[in-house]
Amino acid sequence: MREPLKETVYSLDVQTLGLRGVLHLHVPSFENDATESTAFADSRSPRHKQASGFGPRNEVETAYANTVIARNSGIFAPPVKSACPIFWKILRNQSVQLFSVAPDSISEDTSGAAYSVCIHFPADVLDHGITFAHNAHTSETSLFVLTTARVLYSITLPADAFMRTAENWPRSWCRISRPASFVVRSPMALTCSNEQNLYVAWQEGGFVRLVYDEQVDGYVDNVHFSHNGYLSSLKQLLSLQALRSDYVPPNRVLCLRCSATHNVLFVLTADMNLRVYSTITNALLKTLPIVCDNAPKAYFHAFLALDTVSNNFLAIYCPYVAWGAILLLRIETNADNHFLGLSPLTPSPIQAPIPDDKAFVPWIVTGLCVHTNSRDSLVITTAWKSNLSCLIQCADVKLGHKVKVSWRPVANSLDAADDDFFDIPSSMASGDVSEIWLQRIFFQKALSSSALEVALLIYTGQNSAADLNNPTLSFDDMGRQELGAKIVHAVVGNVQLEAEQQAMNYDYDGYRERLYNEWDRFYKLVLFMDNYGKEVYDIVYLPGISALAAAHANKIGLLGLALLPDSICAGVENTNTSVTAAEPIIKLSLLLHDALSDSALSESRFALRELTQQEMTYSVGDSIWTFYDKYLSQSLSTEMTYALVDTMLSMKDPVNTISRLIRTIKSGDFERSDGTPSFLTSLLISRSLLDSFHAVNTIVESLLFLLFVAASQESKELQSTLVGCDNLCLELLTDWSVINFYIDASRLLMEPTAEESADSTIMADTSADKIDSLKTRCTTAFEFFVSLINTDFYCNCEKPETDLYSVLIQVCYRQLFCSSRRHILVIELMSQLLLQGQASLSRQLIGWLKTSAVEMYLKGHTYLNCLEPDKAVASFRRAFIPVDELADFSSAFFVDYQDLAALYPQEPLACYYLHISMCLMNAACFRHAVTFCELAISSLTESNKAMETDIYYRMFKSACAAGLFKTAYMAIMQVPSRQLPREFLAELLSSMADAGCVDQILNFPMPGLQKTFDDILQAKALNTVDVTLRPSWYHVLFAWRMNQGNMRGAAAILFERLVRFQSQMIVSQRSQYAQLLEDYLVVLNILRTLPKNDAWFLASRVDSARNKCVVPQRLVTLEDVEKGYSKALQSLATLVSSQSDNVQVDEQVPAGLTS
C-alpha cells in the first residue's frame, strides 16, 4: 500500500507570513476603462448555510469575501531557478494580489519579502485574463492583465518588488493598451511566450497574436487565428443554435499553453481539437482530434498542462467519459529540439478515481499538473471540487514498454480541523478550557488571521466596524497576541457564572460546560469563515525549488510525503522489517491508548511530565506501579487488562521488539520521494516534523502505557518476558519528554520585540543577521527552532545541488530527535529564545529542563529575564558550570562566560560567581549581585590582583546602586590597585548624595585615602554653582576636616563658602544675614582655639562676577575674620533700622482722622 501524500496548507496573509503590510498600487487611468464591480453572489448551498449556524451573510462577511477570497488564483513558476515564484489571486474588488513564494528564510541572496502587492484596476479582471513572463537578463517579471473593459495592462515587477515601498516603485511600472481588435471582439483568456508576444482568445472563437510596438509603447494586433473559413463562421453565426445564451462556438479556445523550449503554442478548442502553432512562423504544425464520448454539449471543463521539468510531456483533461479522463502525450522533437509531433503514452485516456459520493455530489476538475519525477516516471496531479469540499489526487505514471498508473489520495490538513474536540476533565479549571481552545485555534497554520478577525467581528456583532467600501480594506491588521486577547475577552465575557439553586455556592461545573460550548460555537464560526479559502484553483510544480504547490482561494498548499509514514502509526503493512515485526505490539498499544478517555490522557500526560522532570525517589519498578495504580488501572476494565496480558504473553521477546522499533523510528530511514521545499522552507519542514512528532508521540505514549500495564501485573510468566523493561521505560520517557518539548514549543507564539535586543551585541557570527530576521518570519517557537537548524546547515555546510528539502528535513529530524546531542540542542534552542528577547516563551518551556548545571544556568537566566530574581538566584547557586562543559555548545549565549573564563582560567568557581554578578547587575538586581561578588571573593584560591580588582569593582558598583554604602566603602578599601579608589570615591559620594546619605561618609575613616578624599570633596565644593543648594559640599568638607582634626582647613573651607554666599546673597533678606553671621562665628571660634601665631589660613579668592573661587590664594588672619564679622553685623543693624523706620511711617494715622 502506497503512503498518501500530505498537503501542508498555509494561509496567505500578512500575519501568517510575517510581512510588514500590503503595498497598494493603482493603475493609471485610461479612457472608458472603468466598469462597476460585480456583486459577490452568495454561492453557499442551503446545507452549507445551515451548517454555519450564524444566519444569512452580513456586511463584514461580504466584505471579507470580496477583499480576501480569490475568484481565481494560481502560481507563476519562472523557468529560472533563482527567480522568485509568485502566488497571485484575482479578488472581487477589482484587484490582483501578489505574494512572494520563495525559500527566502535560508537564502543568501534575499532577506525575504516585506510586503504583498495589491494592484487595483478600474474594472473587474477576467478569470483567465492574467499571465506572466520572466526576463532572465533583467530579472524582471512582466504581469499582463485583461479586464472586462477590454483593456490590456502590462505591469513590470522588479526583482525586489516585494521589498519596495510605494515611494521606491518605478515610475513606468504600468503600460496600458487597447488593440484595435478589442473594439469589436471580447477577450476571454490570455497567455504569452515572452514579454514581447501575447496571445488573446476571443469569446466569439479564435485568438489573436499581439506584439509590442515601441512607437506606440503598447501592444498591437499581429496575426488573427480563426480555425474556420469566413463562410463557415458566418453559417454558424446565422444558425438558430447561435441564438442560445449558452452557445459555445466550435472554434472557441478552451486552453492556451506556450512552450518556450520548443517555440510552439498548444491550443485546445471547443470542437475537441488540439492544434499546435509555431510561435516563430505562426504556422499550424499539427492538429490532433481528441475523441470525446458523452461530452456535455453546453459546457464542460477542459485543462491542458505542460511538463515544466523536461518539457517533453503534455496532459489534457477532457470529458472522455461522464467524469472526464486524462490524455497523456509525448512531444516528439528532433536533435535541434524542434517540434515534430505528438504521440499518446497510453492506448486510452487515464480515468481518475472519483470519490465515493460521486452519485450524489457533482465533482468538477479545477486544476491539472504533470511533471517529470525521474527519467522513467511522471506524476499527474488533479484538483477536484464540489459544493461541499475539495480534493486533490496524484497518479504515479511508470514509463516503459507498458505504462503503469497508480493513484493515491492527498490528505488535506484543513480536514483535520473539522473534528477537533476534547473532553473536560473534572479537575480542569475554566482558564484551562479557554487556553486549550485558544491553542487549537491559533496553532493550526491553515487558519488565517483574516478569518479569525472576521469571525471575531461577526461574533461580537460589530458588522460595521470597518469602512467596508474602502478598496484597501484589510482584515489582518492586528497581531496575533492582540487578536488572541480580544478573542478570549469576547468569548469568556459572553458566559456568566451563575449561582446554584437553593445554595450559596456557584455552579462552576455548569460554567465550564457553557464556556466549552461557547468556545465550540466560536471555533465553528472560524472554520466556516476559513472555508472560504479552501477551494483549489490550480496546481503547479515549481522546478526551481522542487515543490508541488496547490493554489487555494486564500491559501497555498505544499504536497509531499510525510517524514514518518502513517502506516507505522496505523500498524499496517510496511516494508521495514523492524516495523513489520512490531505490528502486533503497535496495534495492541494503540488499542490501549484509544481505550483511555481524554481526561484520563490529560492526567496521565501530566504525570509523565512530572516523571521526566524530577529525579525518581523510588526505583523504576515502584514508579511504574504507582503510575499504573493512579492513572491507568481506574480507566481500564478488567476484561481489557486480561486481554492485554494474554496478548503480551503470546508475543516473543516484546522488549527487544519495541527497542528495535524505536531505533528504526529514530533513524528516519524510510522510503520517501523527491523533496518538497516550500516558499518558506523552514515553515514547511516544521509542519512536517510536527506531524511526525505527533505520530511518534502517540506511539511512544502508547508503548509506555502498555509497558506500565504489563510490568504492574503479578504474573510471573509475564514478568519473565519483560527483562530489561525498566531501562526501556527510561529510554521511552526521555524520548517522550523531548518530543513533547517540541510540541509545546509549537504552541507558543513568538512575541514582537524591539529591532535591537539587549543581547544582540554578542551575536557576531555569520548567521546572526539571518537569525535576527528569521524571528519576524516565524509564528511559533518551534518554527524558530527549525529555522535555526536550517540556517546553520545552509550557512556552514556544503549545499546540496538538488533536493534541498529532503536533506534539510532529515537534518532537522535527526538533530531534533535522533541525535545523541539532542539534549544539547534543546539547551541551545532555549538559549536562542533568550537571545531574541523571548523570555516569556522560555519561561513556559522551562519545565522541560532538568537539573544539570547548564540547564539550571538557563533556568536562572529565564527567571531573571522574567523579573523573578529570587528564583534566578536559587537556580544560579546550583548551576556552577566548568567551562570545559561548554565546549559542545555553539550558542552565542555562553560567549560572555567563556570569554571571562579564558581571562581567569585559574579560578573557575570565582569566575562563575563573577559572571553571575555581572548578569545580575545588568538586570538591576544589585543586592544579589553584591552577594555573588562576595561569593567570588571567598572562592579565590590564590592571590590574583587583576581578578580581585574586577570583583571589587563589580561589588562597589552594585553596592552603590543598591544603597549598601558600607559595603561599597569596604570594597574600595579592599581594591589592590591604588589607581582606582579616586574614581570609586567620587562615584560613592555621588551615589550617597543621590540617596540623601552624605552624612554617613563621616563614619568611614578611609585610612591612607584621607588626602585623596579631601581633594575630591574640595573639587566638588569649588565646582558648586549655588552654595545654598543641598547637599552643601562645603559643609560636608567642613565636617570631614573637623572630624580629621584639620581645624585650619575646616575654617578655610567654611570661610570660602561664606565669601561666595555673601557675593550672591540678597541684601534685603534678614534670614541670609543670620546664616552669614553664624558661619562667621564658627570660623572665629575655630581660629580662637588655635594659638595666636597659628590663627590664620589660606583662602581662595572669589570672582564675584562668576561666583567662583580663583587662584592665587590669599592669607586670612583672625583680625580679617573679625573685621568681616563686624562689617556684616553693621550691615544687618542698618537693615533692621531701615526696616523699623518704614514700619513706623506706615503705622502713622493720616491727617483728618482721629484715633
Automatic annotation (TrEMBL):
Alphabetical UniProt keywords: Nucleus, Transport
One GO term describing the cellular component: nuclear periphery
Keyword Transport: yes
Domain (Nucleoporin Nup120 helical) ranges: 608-732
Pfam families per UniProt: Beta-prop_Nup120_160, HEAT_Nup120, NUP120_helical
Any one of the GO BP annotations: poly(A)+ mRNA export from nucleus
Region of interest (Disordered), residue spans: 36-56
Domain Nucleoporin Nup120/160 beta-propeller: start-end pairs: 86-559
Subcellular location(s) of the protein: Nucleus
Nucleus recorded as keyword: yes
Annotated ranges, domain Nucleoporin nup120-like HEAT repeat: 829-993
Main location: nucleus
GO MF term set: structural constituent of nuclear pore
PANTHER family for this protein: NUCLEAR PORE COMPLEX PROTEIN NUP160
Identification of the protein by name: Nucleoporin Nup120
Annotated source species: Schizosaccharomyces japonicus (strain yFS275 / FY16936) (Fission yeast)
Gene behind the chain: nup120
